[in-house]
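User: Here's a structure from my thesis project, written as structure tokens. My advisor, Dr. K., wants to see whether a designed sequence matches the one we expressed. Can you design one independently, without my sequence as a hint?
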């Protein structure tokens, strides 16, 4: 594949020139990673099957997992979607540009590879000046899944993209850290009752202001009944570090007590523990490596920190300064984050990343 990935650091002084260079790569059928408000996306011309194939190859993404098509203006809608219901336009008025993806009926202009062979297409208008300018200047809708290796935590900085995809994509535009930190909410509006297929940056509460009835069409992870639940979780794993992830969910004090007990148990086995932890729980426990999710009642901070935290803790594997391996053998995640608003998406991602879920 590509040997060298160009890195464009974008700022006000070079904005137009950088966008023009990146858009040229897209026009030539190449791949460019770029910031959106949710996570970094890996973009290619959504209408060019050869270009879209490069996205699947670079990410190692299964061919049946469809891509979201990003547009910069509603004028492009008719090219890719048809029979758009009135509720879709109301939702666009309310949430675009922004982290809401709408699943619509597709036109024949959208190649099969982009939609994973489905007769629908997922569409969104991102709320980021770099993303909007790139789409506009490229002059075509961009298929853009998250710019990570499939299965890894999503990228919220250009460094995350480079760490996963350097040498596998043509370029990345470095526009700094993203604002939201979790992916868009995916809402299917092709049936009578809209269905949320993925929780994300727009909350269920916000969608309900516009849609009378809505179906929850996703699952987090199989959870059995009982006080303490241990779920194997492997086959649901997603957004995953290489290191084992144990998620502890429940009331704040109970979570802190459980994490403290787990740290003791792991320490007895000489295992090094990394903690992805809320500020409140951090007052009660400590471990070899810690990364803050922010306050329990601020799920928007947890959204911004969660993927960077998983990646940070996953990388604490070798201490070069003393040239010995000091692996973090297990990452314990504090799941006491408030589960409303974007907190629903945060807990969804954490459950999918976890190898083991403990409810207290
Ligand atoms: P990503 O772009 O990596 O954040 O993933 C895109 C998400 O949108 C995945 O969960 C896809 O399964 C979903 N998606 C994309 N297109 C469709 C579609 N036509 N119907 C249903 N889900 C879709
Ligand atoms: Mg993804």
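Assistant: Designed independently from the structure alone:
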């Amino acid at each position: 594949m590509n040997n060298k990935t160009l890195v464009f650091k974008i700022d006000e002084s070079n904005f137009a020139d950088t966008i023009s260079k990146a858009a040229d790569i897209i026009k030539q059928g190449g791949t460019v990673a770029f910031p959106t408000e949710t996570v970094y996306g890996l973009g290619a011309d959504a209408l060019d099957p050869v270009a879209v194939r490069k996205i699947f190859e670079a990410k190692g993404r299964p061919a049946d997992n469809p891509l979201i098509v990003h547009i910069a203006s509603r004028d492009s809608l008719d090219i890719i979607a048809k029979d758009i219901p009135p509720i879709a336009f109301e939702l666009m008025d309310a949430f675009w540009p922004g982290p809401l993806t709408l699943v619509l009926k597709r036109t024949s202009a959208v190649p099969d590879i982009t939609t994973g062979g489905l007769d629908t297409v997922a569409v969104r208008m991102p709320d980021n000046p770099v993303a909007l300018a790139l789409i506009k200047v490229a002059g075509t809708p961009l298929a853009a899944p998250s710019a990570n290796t499939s299965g890894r935590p999503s990228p919220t900085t250009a460094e995350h993209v480079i760490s996963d995809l350097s040498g596998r994509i043509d370029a990345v535009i470095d526009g700094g850290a993203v604002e939201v930190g979790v992916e868009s909410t995916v809402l299917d509006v092709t049936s009578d009752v809209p269905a949320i297929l993925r929780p994300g940056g727009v909350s269920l509460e916000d969608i309900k202001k516009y849609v009378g009835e809505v179906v929850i069409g996703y699952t987090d992870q199989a959870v059995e009944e009982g006080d303490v639940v241990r779920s194997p979780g492997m086959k649901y794993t997603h957004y995953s570090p290489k290191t084992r992830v144990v998620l502890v969910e429940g009331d704040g004090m109970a979570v802190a007590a459980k994490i403290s007990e787990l740290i003791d148990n792991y320490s007895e086995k000489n295992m090094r523990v990394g903690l992805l932890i809320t500020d409140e729980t951090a007052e009660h426990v400590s471990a070899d490596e810690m990364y803050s999710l922010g306050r329990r009642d601020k799920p928007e901070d947890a959204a911004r920190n969660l993927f960077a935290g998983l990646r940070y803790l996953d990388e604490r594997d070798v201490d070069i300064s003393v040239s010995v391996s000091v692996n973090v053998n297990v990452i314990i995640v504090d799941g006491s984050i408030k589960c409303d608003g974007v907190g629903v998406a945060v807990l969804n991602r954490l459950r999918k990343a976890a190898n083991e879920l403990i409810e207290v």
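When you compare it with your expressed construct, this may help: DSSP finds twelve helices and 19 strands in the chain.
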